[in-house]
């Protein structure tokens, strides 16, 4: 196993991690921005006002995208297992 194969696997792993984190992070970012905009307009500075809607939105994003996220992770894992013989020099 050479360094290019290790770097390739690492890059693929980072790419899958970024794809899996994107729906949750973008949802939290969007809801957080909307709530902070609402708080700055109305001058209501309540901590739970920003936390509760963001937590609910993240849960909804996980429910909507969960099946896709699991499918992506299974596909990546299967590809890694399929590469094992070639990485060990057997084929």
UniProtKB/TrEMBL annotation:
Role noted for this protein: Role in flagellar biosynthesis.
Upper lineage is: Bacteria, Bacillati, Actinomycetota, Actinomycetes, Micrococcales
Q: Does the keyword tRNA processing apply?
A: no
Tell me which NCBIfam families the record gives. fliQ (TIGR01402)
What keywords were assigned to this record?
Bacterial flagellum, Cell membrane, Cell projection, Cilium, Flagellum, Membrane, Transmembrane, Transmembrane helix
Species annotation: Arthrobacter koreensis
Which top-rank group of organisms is this from? Bacteria
| Membrane-topology descriptor | Multi-pass membrane protein
Q: What is this protein called?
A: Flagellar biosynthetic protein FliQ
Its localization reads:
Cell membrane; Bacterial flagellum basal body
Q: Which family does it belong to?
A: Belongs to the FliQ/MopD/SpaQ family.
User: Which stretches are transmembrane?
Assistant: 20-39, 51-70
Database matches in InterPro entries: Bac_export_3, FliQ
């Amino acid at each position: 196993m050479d360094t290019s194969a290790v770097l390739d696997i690492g890059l693929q792993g980072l790419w899958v991690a970024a794809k899996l984190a994107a729906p949750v992070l973008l949802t939290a970012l969007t809801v957080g921005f909307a709530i902070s905009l609402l708080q700055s307009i109305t001058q209501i500075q309540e901590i739970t006002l920003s936390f509760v809607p963001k937590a609910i939105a993240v849960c909804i994003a996980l429910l909507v995208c969960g099946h896709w996220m699991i499918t992506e992770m299974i596909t990546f894992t299967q590809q890694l297992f399929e590469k094992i013989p070639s990485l060990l020099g057997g084929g």
